[in-house]
Amino acid sequence: MSAISPLVCMTDSPSEQDVLLRIRTLRHKLGKRVLILGHHYQREEVFGFADVTGDSLKLSQSASRTDSPFIIFCGVHFMAETADILTRDDQTVILPDPAAGCSMADMADLPQVSAAWNELSGILDADAHITPITYINSTAALKAFCGQHGGSVCTSSNAQRILAWGWRQRDKILFFPDEHLGRNSALAMGLGDEDMIVWDPFKPLGGNSEEDIHKARLILWRGFCSVHQLFKAQHVHDMRQQHPGIQVLAHPECSRYVCDIADMVGSTEAIIRHVEAAESGQAFAIGTELNLVNRLRLRFPDKPVHFLSPTVCMCSTMFRIDPAHLCASLEGILANKVENRVRVAGEDRRWALMSLERMLSLG
Fold first, then answer.
1. CA angle, corner 89, sides to 85 and 94, nearest 5?
2. Which runs of E-coded beta strand occur in the chain?
3. What percent of the chain has pLDDT over 70?
4. What is the model's pTM?
5. CA 356, CA 83: separation in Å to the nearest integer?
6. What are the beta bridge partners of residue 94?
7. Which of 86, 91, 207, 285 could form a disulfide with 306 if both were Cys (CB 3.0 to 4.6 A apart)?
């Protein structure tokens, strides 16, 4: 993918208002030729142009159903890869800024996971005993690995459902790359700490004994979201002290120490629905990305919404998608000079599609 100038769509030094006006003009000209997908963590000035907004599961489903020839994914690279896998060959998926990645997805790559699988196979028959499940926050190559080895993809919305499916296939699950989503989902399903181990890819046998591996039902990859790990149990206690009656809502990528004492744990879509359904006057402290929290604060002025952490932090890679890059993507489509197309081809596409279709078939 080629680099792109953030000012390619305007002359000299355009103001943000000029860029926003130009985007509106381009959207009108292109009409249904373009579908813009916007993740909940996007900045407001980009999010407002999305035709469909949502979490990874909802956007994946929308990508698989659209007939638009061009799909602009305002999110990060693994999301655009997923959209490309789920769409037809004659459709084009564009990531406005190719530098928009995911630090969590970078914590597990195909060589590391393949090496772990080989180590596990030296102790037991991995293909007979282990279902690999990858969080959607991962590369297409890892989704393909799961497809090839009888596994699936999951999102924060359906992780428990996919884990239950995985255990119906085999007696163990290797879950990557997010340790915390895997642990919190399994704990909510009734597994105990004694049923889980953590696999550190930089240690022999992931830092475990052969006995530990034989006993474990869930093998968790040592990976995490840097934003969600900012939230601490002390923040929950402080909020409850400062705002009696407040409800604490946490994303399952947070640590178990936060999730264990939160009033509700759920995906971004679940958090939104929870706030929507609450009575006027109910206050919330929310442990997830700042842009979503701010959007809820503006949308529900009668329901005080607080960011759970005193440290203000947003997903820096999501923040790379700005109006100038969105504008440039639209200009490229209009001029038949598409930049920053995301394409997954060959065997990776075939096997990754299989793992994604398994997930979508389970809801």
1. 65
2. 34-39, 52-54, 70-74, 92-94, 130-135, 152-154, 172-176, 196-199, 218-221, 247-250, 264-265, 284-287, 305-307
3. 94
4. 0.89
5. 10
6. 72, 341
7. 285
